[in-house]
Recover the amino acids of this structure.
């Protein structure tokens, strides 16, 4: 309850910056506090200066930062109407780089005090000043798929917001390689727009793996039912990942579209899309689990109910492959 009260108060205070009147309805991230009334006490600072007790403070607001809606979405992930509203507000706000179809780490910081921090030392569009901070962008995209905004998530992905769908000429490096940040359209030199800098394994990689897990495996692959271990695969995959516009699709012996991946880097999992549809949070109707000794275990329904088979999958060693039919 106290956390929600804090969120509500933050929304009332809002944000403030160039082109931002504080009425965006987007969760702000940071505030400043100026002491307006105080009482001198008997203390001294390390430098020998007198200290005071603060009696009243004035709250100051800053421009929007992408971290605000990222944190806010964590609290509303089960409320789809609120998720959609938050997404649409961010999409049409100063956090959206309309040239790159990505999201700034911050809105325009023009006119802010240097007391705000080191971000003010950088040119707009560079590093922490209104650039495309890949880690924070990926945190935002992760909240979209976590909140089951599948259409919005895959639109952002295919639109160039997520590797490997970025423009390779603009990005300037391998599309398999994350960067610390991309120079945004706010940067003065247009030839730098969309270029990735400081390539590294970073938080972006961790967020991508979390997105990948929700796309291919689902949020809770192992569950306990009556204290017995079971397994379920609930992917979130668009039809275009099964049937590529350029390369076409891959089919099983029955003529159904399939995609495959390695679970735990060891067990081949194949999804058979028998209805040629988006698999957005749709569980399988049946499973075929093939063991390394050649034996086959078949399961009807959305869950692998045999605890021994679920445990064998968890332990990896004895399972060769899993076929899931949708």
């Amino acid at each position: 309850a106290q956390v929600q009260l804090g969120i509500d108060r933050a929304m009332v205070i809002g944000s403030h910056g160039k082109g931002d009147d504080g009425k965006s309805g987007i969760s702000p991230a940071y505030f400043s506090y100026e002491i307006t009334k105080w009482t001198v006490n008997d203390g001294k600072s390390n430098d020998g200066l007198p200290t005071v007790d603060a009696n009243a403070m004035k709250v100051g607001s800053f421009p929007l930062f992408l971290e605000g809606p990222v944190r806010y979405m964590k609290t509303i992930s089960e409320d789809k109407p609120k998720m959609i509203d938050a997404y649409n507000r961010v999409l049409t706000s100063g956090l959206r780089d309309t040239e790159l179809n990505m999201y700034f780490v911050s809105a325009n910081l023009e006119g802010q005090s240097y007391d705000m921090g080191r971000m003010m030392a950088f040119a707009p569009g560079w590093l922490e000043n209104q650039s495309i901070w890949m880690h924070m962008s990926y945190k935002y995209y992760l909240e979209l798929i976590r909140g089951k905004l599948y259409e919005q998530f895959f639109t952002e992905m295919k639109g160039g917001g997520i590797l490997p769908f970025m423009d390779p000429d603009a990005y300037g490096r391998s599309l398999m390689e994350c960067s610390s940040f991309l120079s945004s359209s706010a940067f003065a030199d247009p030839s730098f727009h969309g270029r990735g800098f400081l390539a590294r394994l970073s938080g972006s990689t961790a967020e991508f793996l979390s997105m990948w897990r929700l796309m291919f495996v689902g949020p809770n692959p192992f569950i306990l039912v009556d204290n017995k271990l079971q397994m379920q695969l609930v992917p979130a995959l668009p039809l275009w990942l099964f049937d590529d516009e350029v390369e076409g699709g891959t089919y099983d012996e029955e003529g159904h579209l399939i995609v495959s991946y390695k679970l735990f880097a060891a067990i081949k999992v194949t999804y058979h899309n028998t209805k040629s549809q988006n698999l957005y949070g749709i569980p399988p109707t049946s499973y075929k689990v093939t063991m390394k000794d050649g034996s086959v275990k078949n399961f009807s329904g959305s869950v692998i109910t045999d605890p021994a088979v679920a445990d064998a999958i968890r332990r990896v060693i004895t399972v060769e492959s899993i076929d899931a039919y949708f």
Q: What stands out?
A: DSSP finds eight helices and 18 strands in the chain. The helical segments are 2-13, 67-75, 80-91, 134-146, 150-161, 168-171, 203-216, 307-315. Residues 25 and 214 are 28 Å apart (CA to CA).
